Amino acid sequence: MKIVLATSNKGKVREIIELLHDREVFPYTDLIEGFEIVEDGESFKANALIKARAVYSALGDENAIVVADDSGISVDALDGAPGIYSARYGGEGASDRDNLLKLVEALKEKGLSTSPAHYTAAIAIVSREGESCVHGWMHGDVITELRGENGFGYDPIFIPSGYDQTLGELPNDIKKGLSHRSKALELAKILIDQIKFLRSHAGSAATK
Ligand SMILES: O=c1[nH]c(=O)c2ncn([C@@H]3O[C@H](COP(=O)(O)OP(=O)(O)OP(=O)(O)O)[C@@H](O)[C@H]3O)c2[nH]1
Ligand SMILES: [Mg+2]
């Protein structure tokens, strides 16, 4: 059963494939040409569903189970910014590093060197059975000093609650155990396995 990821973010692909380890998972760009998806939803959930629906219909394969992730970081001292705009906080086409440096600059402009913050991940699942969305969060603090190269995006300035190192410094395995994405995927796995169960029993039910 093909699980197709509706993302072009390599950091997400790596993490999601690791977290869905015993399932056949690959990015949609292994199957069809990548295409621009306009994420004009008002929430992480709305954007995740937009991405999953767009890839599901572009694939035209009723057996596909399409999984999308919309995620971002929300900083208390910036009234929750960048939130759903995390991917383009530094402007259209901004790189992860541009986005991170923009966040550091915004904190410094307020005379701050740290602020409570949290990551949100919304994971949408679209298949012929229907569509659903689950969430996961990870709380901690952002700092204005970049520390470490692990993870991706804003990780070098994010210190998860209970730790004193950033996700850039901590081994990826630590992030796997506590990230917004891993929490949401634990729930998504239940829904994906339900779809598998329904499909494997659909045939036997029909023959009774
Ligand atoms: O340091 C980080 N560690 C994470 O674990 C994480 N999860 C999300 N993000 C950031 O939030 C935005 C997602 O935007 P996003 O959901 O639109 O994804 P994207 O545009 O990169 O790819 P796609 O999935 O839309 O194709 C991007 O700026 C990511 O850097 C993270 N940053
Ligand atoms: Mg995006």
Task: Describe this structure in a few short sentences.
It contains 5 helices and 6 strands. The chain is an alpha/beta fold and 208 residues long. The protein has a single domain, classed as Maf protein.
Task: Give an overview of the whole structure.
- By secondary structure, this protein is α/β, with parallel strands linked by helices.
- It has a single domain, classed as Maf protein (Alpha-Beta Complex), CATH 3.90.950.10.
- The chain is about 35% helix and about 25% strand.
- The protein contains five helices and six strands.
- It has a six-stranded mixed β-sheet, with helices on both faces.
- The relative contact order is 0.15.
- Ligand CZF binds next to β3 and α3.
SSE blueprint:
Blueprint: E1 3-5, H1 10-19, E2 25-27, H2 44-59, E3 65-75, H3 96-109, E4 114-127, E5 130-143, E6 158-160, H4 172-178, H5 180-207
The site of magnesium ion has 2 residues, from loops.
Strand content: 15-25%
Specify the number of helices. Answer: 5
Q: Provide the low-confidence segments as ranges.
A: none
* Gap from first CA to last CA: 24 Å
> Strands of the biggest beta sheet: in what spatial order?
2-1-3-4-5-6
Number of strands: 6
The unique ligands bound to this protein are:
the ligand O=c1[nH]c(=O)c2ncn([C@@H]3O[C@H](COP(=O)(O)OP(=O)(O)OP(=O)(O)O)[C@@H](O)[C@H]3O)c2[nH]1, magnesium ion
Mean pLDDT across residues: 94
Largest sheet: 6 strands, mixed
Radius of gyration, taken over Cα atoms and rounded to an integer in Å:
18 Å
SSE succession:
EHEHEHEEEHH
CATH architecture: Alpha-Beta Complex
Can you identify the CATH class? Alpha Beta
Number of domains as seen in the coordinates: 1
| CATH topology-level name | Maf protein
Specify the overall morphology: elongated
Q: Helical content, roughly? A: 25-40%
What would you call the structural class?
A: alpha/beta
